[in-house]
Amino acid sequence: MAAVVRRGFGRVTDALAERLGRACARVSTNLSIRDRHGDDESYHAAMPPDVVAYAACEREVVAVVRLCAEARVPLIPFGTGTSLEGHIQAPYGGVCLDLSEMAAILEVNEEDMDARVQAGVTRGALNAHLRHTGLSFPIDPGADASLGGMAACGASGTAAVRYGTMRENVLGATVVLADGSVMRTGGRARKSSAGYDLTRLLVGSEGTLGVITELQLRLHPLPAAASAAVCTFPTLADGACAVAALVHSGVALARCELLDASSIAAFNAYPKEAPDMQLAPTLFLEFAGVSDVAVAEDARIAHACCADEGGGDFQFATGADERRRLWAARHTLYYASLALRPGSRGIVTDAAVPLSRLAELMAQTAADVTAEAVVGPIFGHAGDGNFHVILPVLPADPPDYVARLRRINDRLIRRTLAAGGTCTGEHGVGAGKRSYMTLQHGDAAVGAMRAIKRALDPLNIMNPGKVMPDADGDGEGQAEKSAARAELNE
Q1: Of the four, 135, 179, 413, 446, which is 20 to 30 A from 391 by CA?
Q2: Are 258 and 281 in contact (CB under 8 A)?
Q3: Where is the segment annotated Disordered (predicted)?
Q4: Which structural domains are found in the chain, ordered by start?
């Protein structure tokens, strides 16, 4: 655990903690609770806050934010803590604001296919609530994350090839700004050209511009018919080429996931309900449409596309339970990858590239993992050009091994940016990718982001140490660097 570096921020005094306790549902200074709220699913070192405050309503969020602003104390919003880039670290101490008790589904408009929810509602809870409506919220990151956290990180998942990301599915938001004022953006209309798109600004802002308390979400009808299939390929590049052919064919893909042989090995070894797979690069596909006939025709065209790239026969999963087991197993792949090195945490890459460059980038990355002689399963949402390498790292790993992992991560990001891609397609920047922001966006764009940040958060209390590279050019920051080194090199 890293030592807290205050850098001009105030401290959570006993008096402030007492005022926080009067302002919200409850607070805790218990060390284990603080540790849990400063440690996400990533390899980044745990950095606990000074206190955890639990808000049960918007009024309590406002009160906590105002107290933090008054004392110039950092405030870090918290949903379920499942982020992968150190988003909930508290490098400067401060208050973690836990929104999990704000878990009400406020309104479902079946006719208009939208819903209004509090930020602490999880995607699983929303979809369980919608079970008998014929509607769903299809954005599905691997974890059952809170919808507020998903919006804050611009999350997506296996269904992004059909339904897009959180950016396309948040119609409006309510956010408490750094001075405690409440801003409502967007609405229920499916389009608007009235002024700046503040909703899109907030989605992906990672808690650095304000605390999201409510979301207006787009819902989607459940398809009348669906079918899933898996198909193996001689090489990972062959599978990626097949993905490009599938997308260009116009087939109505609902999911399109590509796993390398290492990922299949992890998949097979991990507890699951789905059957084991052949140890080869494999495409997981789902087709959805208005009828079984339409779905079968899409599957026929897809099989022809895959066969042209060396793909084998399709193995179908047509029943709802069979498909559910297949995709539930796919969603555990992050944890299955870590289980290849028991006790590890993951350095997770999140490249997204133009589809025409996917095969090249995935093949180069696979070669890099082999050359560095490390464990690194490769898989991703290939239908929209987004793929991951999971690089498990153990506390006892020697510095040379950790350096090899970091080289793979760095080279992949640089290749991705050179190909016109992004360093993060869905996980967000957090603490881990700050040093690449200027390389990706340029000085002028980062300067504009800084100006927005200063305008909305002049005291820099909202989740400091995330997204923006430090003004001195040290993208990770000294506190984050020392913590990562301490954890990985002990």
Answers
A1: 446
A2: yes
A3: 463-490
A4: 1-100+434-490 (3.30.43.10), 105-221 (3.30.465.10), 225-332 (3.30.70.2190)
